[in-house]
Structures are given as C-alpha cells and as structure tokens.
Design brief:
By secondary structure, this protein is an all-alpha fold. The chain folds into two domains: about 5-65, lambda repressor-like DNA-binding domains (434 Repressor (Amino-terminal Domain), Orthogonal Bundle), CATH 1.10.260; about 75-185, no CATH class. Helices cover about 65% and strands about 0% of the residues. It is built from ten helices and no strands. It is elongated and about 70 Å long.
Length: about 200
C-alpha cells in the first residue's frame, strides 16, 4: 500500500471512531506531529507506531495495511436491487440498502455514492407513498400495514385515479432501480431522482 492510501485509511478510521488528531495522539501515546505526518503521507508507521495506532483505533494492523477500495460491480448490482424490497414493504426498501451500504461503503468503490442516492430516493418514495395513502384512505393505511404495491393493486380494482398514481410510482421505482443496475454494470454512477438529500 502506498503512503497516500495508508494515510487516507488511517484518517478515515480516526474519523469513524470520532477522534480528532489530538485524541488519536493521546490514545496512541504518539506525538501530535507524528499523527499529522502519518495522515499527510509524509511518513509510514511501522512496528511500534503501527501497533499503537491500531490499538487506539481498535482495528487489526492487516485492516490498515491491506485496505484499498476494490471494484465490485456485482455488489453494486445487488445494492441497487436491494431497493426492490420495497415491494414487500416500503420500509424494507430503506432498511436493506442501509445495511448493505454500511457493510461495504468504505471497502468497495461506488458503494458510498450509490448507497446514499438509493437510500435518499427510497426514503423520499416511502414518505410520498404513505402521505398519499393516508390522505386518500382517510388514515386507513399506515406504515405497518401491507405494502404500497399491495394497496395500489387492491385499490386498482376500483379503477381510481389515486390507485393508478400509487401504482405508477411503484412502477417508476422499479424501472429506476433496473436502469441503475444497468448503469452500475457499465461502470457509470447511479442516478436516483427525485430524492430529498437526507444523506449527503
């Protein structure tokens, strides 16, 4: 691993622990100047310094030395497809992508960006669907009820405009996910719009 990758990994791990450079220096019993030089890539920690840093960050030395974001289009595909879980319940369309994003956001290229966009879109979608259902049903449907797609299909039997709108929104969600699966296989960035930027 080159100095820059090692420096950025240590910095990322420090921030994940919620440490300032001063706190890392204190926890690792290294000087602040040493921590600053390591994070700037001016020096590479070896031996005792590496051991102290890894102990302070509560990670394995191998986690730092072998780390480099890898490319995995398969994982990006599955991450995008995880949004389809909204079909079973809209909250699953948020929870499953969040779990997948947390697990690999620092390990696989593109997961952080794709995950945030997908999660923002699914939160926006869920809020919109339930706002519409609550208004149109007079409070009959709630978040813990059946999925929005089930409600739309059951309401569609009455051929109402409301049910058609909910069904169209569900179909738009599905088509957007499929489009982003194709984009990820081509190595392109994902695009989920519209979405309120809850996660930046």
């Amino acid at each position: 691993m080159d100095k820059e990758n090692l420096a950025s990994k240590i910095k990322a791990l420090r921030k994940r622990r919620g440490f300032s450079q001063e706190q890392l220096a204190e926890e690792s019993a290294l000087s602040l100047r040493t921590v600053q030089r390591i994070e700037k890539g001016e020096t590479v920690p070896h031996g005792d310094s590496l051991r102290k840093i890894t102990q302070a960050l509560k990670v394995n030395p191998d986690d730092i030395l072998e780390w480099a974001p890898t490319e995995d289009k398969g994982y990006l595909t599955v991450l995008n497809l995880s949004g389809l879980s909204f079909i079973f319940h809209p909250l699953l369309g948020i929870i499953i992508p969040i779990v997948m994003w947390i697990l690999k956001k620092d390990k696989i290229k593109g997961v952080d960006d794709t995950g945030k966009k997908l999660i923002n879109f699914e939160i926006t979608f869920t809020l919109l669907i339930y706002a519409l259902l609550l208004v149109w049903s007079g409070g009959k449907y709630w978040i813990w009820d059946v999925s929005a797609l089930d409600v739309a299909i059951s309401l569609l039997s009455t051929f109402s405009i409301e049910a058609s709108i909910v069904l169209l929104l569900c179909l738009y969600n599905i088509s957007l996910i499929i489009m982003n699966v194709i984009r990820s296989k081509k190595g392109l960035k994902s695009s989920y719009v519209p979405a309120i930027p809850f996660m930046r």
